[in-house]
Amino acid sequence: MTVVDESGATYNNLDEVLKDEAIAVCGIKLHVLPHGFSFNLKTRQPMTSPSSRPTAIAS
User: Fold this and answer.
1) Domains: count for the chain
2) Which residues pair with residue 38 across a beta bridge?
3) Rounded to two decimals, what is the model's pTM?
């Protein structure tokens, strides 16, 4: 699973980019998580081990 967390972005051109133009996004976090890992959408944190995972994860 790949998670792009844009919450801390410092810049993006999404509101001005046209259909076939490239986007720019700066200051993001990228999480690459293998099978068995998860991501908590409320806390914006990866869950890296079974002991750190809450029983309910937002989806």
Assistant:
1) 1
2) 47
3) 0.64
CB 9 within 8 A of CB 21: no
pLDDT digits (tens, 9 = 90+) for 17-29: 999 999 999 999 9
- 29 lies in some domain: yes
Q: What span, in angstroms and rounded, lies between the C-alpha atoms of 21 and 44?
A: 29
Whether the Cβ atoms of residue 37 and residue 1 lie closer than 8 Å to each other = yes
**What residue numbers bound the domain in which 29 lies?**
2-52
pLDDT band of residue 52 (cuts 50, 70, 90) is low
d(CA 37, CA 1): 8
